[in-house]
């Protein structure tokens, strides 16, 4: 992973996460996403955790550390994938890193008991507001929702019945967008999905729990 960038270390939960400015700097508040996934884990089916748009890997790695579940992580960026492997090794964790677009990273029959989805959610016109962040890691398309929609659909397609996904979004409008996707079930499975809870960390972001409709 040759680079003229200086690697930094961020404390994330009880993990030390290596990163440099080519990937998104770990945000301390997003440890709440890992912790929520761990809180839900006992009621979810067996199976690995899936993390989509994993960046340097901290959210999925902390969730795996807290739950003891196996982990599969996907990100298109080869620099991010290299940092995931490095961070997993430093933490003594095992992860299956898929360096691919999230819609191409999984085999059709792969199923997961739990998912965390961390899509870029900043509208393209606003990415200049965050000059220290790499555009690939934050650009969510014209209205910021392109990869939110993609990530939710991929996660639900691969969740086992009874599984849960914890999704990071940017604002209440994106929460409502997720609600609008769910009448279709997202997967074709018999049991439809629903937004079961929302946790507000604004102005930093929001977390959405999607699970089986009660």
TrEMBL record:
Stored SUPFAM superfamilies: S-adenosyl-L-methionine-dependent methyltransferases
Alphabetical list of Pfam families matching this protein: MTS
InterPro entries from the UniProt entry: DNA_methylase_N6_adenine_CS, N5-glutamine_MTase, SAM-dependent_MTases_sf, Small_mtfrase_dom
Domain Methyltransferase small: 45-121
Top-rank taxon: Bacteria
PROSITE patterns: N6_MTASE
PANTHER family per the UniProt record, alphabetical: HEMK METHYLTRANSFERASE, MTRF1L RELEASE FACTOR GLUTAMINE METHYLTRANSFERASE
Name of the molecule in the record: Methyltransferase small domain-containing protein
Naturally occurring in which organism (per UniProt): Nocardioides panacisoli
Upper classification of the organism: Bacteria, Bacillati, Actinomycetota, Actinomycetes, Propionibacteriales
């Amino acid at each position: 992973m040759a680079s003229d960038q200086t690697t930094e270390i961020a404390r994330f939960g009880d993990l030390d996460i290596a990163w440099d400015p080519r990937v998104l700097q770990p945000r301390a508040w997003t440890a709440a996403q890992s912790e929520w996934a761990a809180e839900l884990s006992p009621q979810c089916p067996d199976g690995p955790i899936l993390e989509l748009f994993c960046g340097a890997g901290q959210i999925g790695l902390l969730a795996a550390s807290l739950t003891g579940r196996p982990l599969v992580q996907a990100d298109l960026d080869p620099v991010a994938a290299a940092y995931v492997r490095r961070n997993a090794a430093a933490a003594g964790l095992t992860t299956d890193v898929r360096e691919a677009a999230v819609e191409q990273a999984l085999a059709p029959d792969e199923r997961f008991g739990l998912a965390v989805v961390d899509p870029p959610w900043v509208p393209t016109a606003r990415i200049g507001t965050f000059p220290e962040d790499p555009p690939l890691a934050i650009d969510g398309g014209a209205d910021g929702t392109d990869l939110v929609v993609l990530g939710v659909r991929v996660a639900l397609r691969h969740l086992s019945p009874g599984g849960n996904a914890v999704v990071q979004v940017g604002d209440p409008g994106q929460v409502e967008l997720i609600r609008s996707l769910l009448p279709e079930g997202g997967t074709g499975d018999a049991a439809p999905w629903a937004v079961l809870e929302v946790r507000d960390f604004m102005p930093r972001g929001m977390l959405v729990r999607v699970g089986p409709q009660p």
